[in-house]
């Protein structure tokens, strides 16, 4: 198995899976108008029905799952980098901390065009868990990952609420922040938009992630991706394929009851919704995420499927470039300082815009990678990560 890794330093299915995740994120962001909820007021009835179907379909498939795949693969990439350095007798940990600092810069660039913050900054903050656990055993990584994914903070508040009915979650003022973000976005002043996004927007995004249970889930996914790398589970072997089939079965079976319980809990009082409800919401999304990942890995073993989704490999190799440029493109399309098409784009039209953006980016990726080894932002990140060395 180690020989397989050496012969294929990049595992194709990982690039394709990362491309799939970024594609899904772009489609969701377009439907959300990049957190700018302005839509047509007087669409015909048939289009309203179609819009609702598009919204339900895309959100059910991808919301909370695409980001989770992205996070899982972030941990996997950390394994690749750590392992490559370990083979040379080096510790990648401190270089990784510098890499996170650089990622914070990219997060700021993306957030400048994306109201209400950016997930990359969450990755920067939570990424510290990879630094502290980089030398842990496989078992310790897996156990800690599971503990994080259980959402311990939510259950603490739930139990505290049972013991003391007066207990309540701290008010992080996220709603008020998003209201202010919406106001300066609608005002259309480009300078205020940029400044607000990289300050208030980033703060709102991080605090929203606290409320949504994403801090602990992201940490768990990072460690799970790191563990998957350690165990080389993305390498194509019969044993791994059987494991992914089992993961698919268990996750698919678990999804329905988890989703049903989440829906029932969301009918309870506010504290239960915000605690147990959040935990079950994270669990049902995790189950569906594993269904998507396992299905993709299994299907990718089929040559016809891998051939049909081959463009996702190019797209995944330039995931950082694509992730950031889609925010810039989206802001120019939907926001008042740009074309301001948000009031004319319902969910169906927004989905078509997202698909066109994706296809345009795929074309650019294939053209660029025909001339370069890495995407433009990937090259900068790599070059600055290894500054002071011969890499």
Task: Give the topology, please.
Layout: H1 2-7, H2 12-31, H3 45-62, H4 66-87, H5 93-112, H6 119-126, H7 128-133, H8 138-149, H9 152-163, H10 174-187, H11 190-211, H12 214-230, H13 238-265, H14 270-299, H15 303-308, H16 311-317, H17 319-334, H18 347-369, H19 376-385
Q: What does this protein structure show overall?
A:
- The protein is an all-alpha fold.
- It has helices at residues 2-7, 12-31, 45-62, 66-87, 93-112, 119-126, 128-133, 138-149, 152-163, 174-187, 190-211, 214-230, 238-265, 270-299, 303-308, 311-317, 319-334, 347-369, 376-385.
- Helix 2 (12-31) runs antiparallel to helix 18, helix 5 (93-112) runs antiparallel to helix 6 and helix 5 (93-112) runs parallel beside helix 17 (319-334).
- The longest helix has 30 residues, at 270-299.
- It is globular, with a radius of gyration of 21 Å.
- 42% of the residues are buried.
Order of helices and strands: HHHHHHHHHHHHHHHHHHH
Low-pLDDT residue intervals, each spanning 5 or more residues: 1-8
Helix/strand/pairing class, anyone? mainly alpha
Shape type: globular
What is the alpha-carbon Rg in Å?
A: 21 Å
Instruction: State which percent range the strand residues make up.
Output: under 5%
Number of helical runs? 19
> Roughly how many Å apart are the termini?
27 Å
Count of beta strands: 0
Tell me, rounded to a whole number, the average pLDDT. 93
Q: How would you characterize the largest beta sheet?
A: none
Helix content: over 70%
């Amino acid at each position: 198995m180690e020989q397989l890794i050496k012969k294929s330093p990049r595992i194709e299915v990982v690039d394709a899976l990362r491309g799939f995740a970024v594609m899904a994120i772009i489609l969701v962001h377009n439907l959300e108008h990049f957190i700018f909820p302005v839509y047509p007021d007087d669409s015909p009835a048939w289009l309203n029905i179609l819009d609702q179907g598009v919204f339900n379909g895309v959100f059910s498939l991808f919301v909370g799952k695409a980001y989770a795949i992205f996070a899982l693969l972030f941990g996997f990439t950390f394994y690749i980098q750590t392992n490559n350095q370990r083979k040379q007798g080096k510790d990648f940990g401190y270089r990784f901390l510098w890499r996170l600092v650089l990622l914070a810069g990219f997060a700021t660039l993306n957030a400048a065009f994306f109201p209400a913050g950016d997930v990359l900054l969450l990755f920067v903050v939570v990424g510290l868990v990879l630094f502290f656990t980089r030398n842990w055993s496989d078992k310790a990584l897996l156990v800690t990952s599971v503990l994080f994914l259980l959402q311990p903070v939510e259950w603490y508040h739930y139990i505290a609420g049972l013991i003391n009915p007066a207990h309540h979650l701290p008010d992080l003022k996220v709603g008020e922040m998003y209201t202010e973000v919406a106001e300066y976005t609608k005002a259309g002043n480009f300078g205020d938009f940029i400044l607000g996004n990289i300050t208030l927007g980033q703060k709102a995004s991080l605090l929203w992630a606290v409320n949504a249970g994403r801090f602990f889930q992201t940490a768990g996914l990072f460690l799970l991706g790191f563990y998957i790398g350690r165990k080389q589970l993305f390498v194509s072997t019969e044993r791994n394929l059987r494991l992914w089939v089992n993961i698919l079965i268990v996750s698919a079976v678990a999804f329905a009851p988890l989703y049903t319980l989440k829906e029932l809990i969301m009918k309870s009082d506010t504290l239960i919704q915000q605690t147990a409800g959040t935990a079950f919401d994270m669990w049902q999304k995790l189950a569906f995420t594993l269904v998507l990942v396992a299905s993709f890995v299994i299907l990718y073993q089929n040559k016809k499927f891998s051939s049909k989704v081959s463009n996702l490999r190019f797209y995944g190799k330039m995931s950082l470039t694509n992730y950031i440029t889609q925010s810039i493109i989206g802001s120019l399309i939907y926001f008042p300082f740009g074309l301001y098409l948000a009031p004319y784009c319902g969910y169906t039209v927004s989905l078509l815009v997202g698909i066109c953006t994706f296809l345009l980016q795929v074309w650019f990726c294939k053209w660029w990678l025909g001339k370069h080894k890495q995407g433009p932002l990937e090259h900068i990140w790599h070059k600055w990560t290894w500054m002071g060395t011969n890499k």
